Amino acid sequence: MEHIGKLEQRLWTAADSLRANSNFASNEYFMPVMGLIFLRHAYSRFLKVRDEIIPTLPSRGGKTRPLTKEDFSARSSIFLREEAQFDYLVGLPEGEVASTAVIAAMKSIEEDYTALEGLLPKQEYAEIDEDALRQVLRIFNDPALQKADGDVFGKIYEYFLTQFADQKAHDNGEFFTPRSIVETIVNIIEPAQGKVIDPACGSGGMFVQSAHFVEAMQANPNERLTFYGMEKNPTTIRLAKMNLAVHGLEGRIEKAISYYEDPHKAQGPFDYVMANPPFNVDEIDAEKMKDDPRLSFGLPGVNKGGKVSNGNYVWMSFFHSYLSGTGRAGIVMSSQASSAGGQEAKVREAMVKSGDIDVMLAIRGNFFYTRTVPCEIWFMDKGKPEHLRDKVLMLDARQVFRKVTRKICDFSPEQEKNLSAIVWLYRGQEDRFATLVQDYLSTARREAQQAVFTELLEVLEKACIHFTAHTDTSELKAGIDKLGSDAKDYADNAAKLEQPETTIDALTAALKAMQPFADQAKTVIKEIDHLAKLMQKAQEEAIAAGEKAAEGKKHLTALADARASLTGDPEIHLTPTGSLKRFRYFAGQADWLLSRFPEGQLCDVAGLVKLVSMEELAENDYSLTPGRYVGVAPEEDDEDFDFEEAIKEIHDELETLNAEAAELADTISKNFAELMV
Q: What pTM value is reported for the model?
């Protein structure tokens, strides 16, 4: 579903209307909304799995065995009784009360799945206007959704979590970790099989993305992974369990304050730890946890009030202690932590000397919906090979990002892969690096060869004939002739591109052959854009001369449709569309990797990555801040430089720096207050 963004916005607008038609405050209505998304997502998966199960059911005497809950559980899906199926709720007769029916649906699911007992929203629906609830049910039954697969619903579910996080509708939005952050953690620690724990699990996003990782391996995540979570907020626990259930996952999530409680102690150690804990917590009672065996590196600084001055290294010690002898961890942490001084520095030194700190990844600000400051992801690996135990990979990705909105950044799927590829090289997996480059070049080649100009040229010719009767079209005609010639030349060159082998030499040669051709694609894109402007100008001149707008508008619409397959859909901003632009984009991804790692092996890249020895770490007070080691990248000329976008980015960066300054000032103020006690 290429236009899922429009669908998400339409659904969000409908759901948001419940706030105006209920007695809920803005921080209360999100649970009933998520409950409806839960029901719709569960029903979509139910239908898909049901159609897979029915042909496999045994029959006797011409009678097929009825479906059971166990049939669905075996395929990571929820079984739904008739009264819980979404089309039943949408088709309720006018005489029945919609809220009563939705409550009954939730109760039936809780009866069949005891892990959800008491967690699904129910009585909240009695507070919603009847007509508004029916309207939302109908909109959530959008025809596009009836054909949508589980992945689409997963994205919609996540979109709603994102919207609520952005509104800080619950727990200051801290229940949600952005997808690209979670995927980056999952891609690097690779949770393929074993026990996963998240001691600050929020809405369970780490578990869901781990499951997707296993599903990509064509395996059942419930057979490969066991999930354990801890969360202090009861409402967030409900959200997490719903999130697991809607994705067909099982897990044990316990209510606990992780500083003082360890409810999964008996299930340890764990193969994977993933977490985005609260940053810079300063009200932890040191007396309550001074003998906690999870603090193998000792307590960080304690102030005169008996409180741990900053909880960052409490978390880091906990995560390290949870790991098995070969376990891996990925933790989102405040960028202040990696170079913190005092007692925290002593804890960090001990952690570094353990040899288990694996990768440090710096991420710029504005990746989170509720925090503008930059962060770092700490990766630990107790199973590191011996030759890497005295080294840490420093990866500074602050210049790797894409703009989602004016305020929000993330990683594109390809940027996530590229960062993972650097870690593959660090781990000696050069074959995976080469395969990724080959995949980029193969995709670029395919897109180049799929560019067809016939329809576009026909549309341009017809439009030119129309406008010739009303205005001077000599420039338009010349442009069409040039585009026709350049398009033929482009197609001839595209046909010559060959599928590269996976050796670095072959990949480098293939990229070198592509690069002049990519420049040609850029020229053709500019020609098409220029012709579109000439067409618009011709339309304006024709109208000024007395021609009705309708006929010319038809030609402009036809041009927009014909352009889209070549230069992209202007309504889709984050994903590259159009064969010409996709060709340039994927060739650019291959170039990004090969220009930095030309031998297909790990090497230091200024401003991006450096493999740091224990000796160098010691010389820098065991600081784990990547920017301290990788240096500054040489300035590069950007042929696609956009001045307006650059000004926006400077403004966003200024906002980020102001937020950092405010946070730093607050920290200084607190530290000063402690000194004065």
A: 0.86
